[in-house]
């Protein structure tokens, strides 16, 4: 994943941490259905880290997970018509297809920086962040 995200130093990543979309486990990943509103920077982004709810067989929420997805795999819904803030590009993002398991991560792993650190660019020990690197995905 690191190689895919960091192929270009000008790549922009955005994030939506409200788990509005839902998913069920599918062959080799999750079948993701839904949309994320107010995705700032959606037209400029190449990548997005988005939260979603995983449903069990009875349709109950089992857990919240995060998917790292290429923005090219999402549909941008043009919904933002607010005077004075049109430049924020806060459109809705929609996805109606599977996401591979290796691009899905747990909430606790992100909050403690374990899984994000595995995806982030390699640094020397002297420049390694001292706090969880969640802001890396929002910058």
UniProtKB/TrEMBL annotation:
InterPro entries, alphabetized: Acyl-CoA_Oxase/DH_mid-dom_sf, AcylCoA_DH/oxidase_NM_dom_sf
Region (Disordered): 92-139
GO molecular function: oxidoreductase activity, acting on the CH-CH group of donors
Biased composition (Pro residues): 130-139
Skewed-composition ranges (Basic and acidic residues): 92-105
Protein name: Uncharacterized protein
Gene source species: Streptomyces griseoruber
């Amino acid at each position: 994943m690191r190689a895919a995200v960091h192929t270009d130093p000008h790549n922009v990543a955005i994030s939506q941490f409200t788990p509005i979309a839902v998913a069920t486990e599918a062959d080799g990943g999750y079948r993701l259905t839904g949309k994320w509103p107010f995705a700032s920077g959606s037209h400029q982004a190449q990548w997005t880290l988005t939260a979603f709810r995983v449903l069990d067989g009875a349709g109950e929420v089992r857990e919240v997970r995060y998917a790292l997805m290429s923005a090219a795999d999402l549909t941008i819904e043009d919904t933002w018509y607010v005077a004075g803030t049109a430049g924020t590009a806060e459109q809705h993002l929609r996805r109606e297809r599977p996401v591979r398991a290796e691009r899905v991560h747990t909430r606790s792993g992100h909050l403690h920086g374990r899984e994000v650190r595995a995806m982030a660019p390699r640094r020397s020990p002297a420049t390694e962040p001292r706090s969880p690197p969640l802001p890396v995905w929002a910058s």
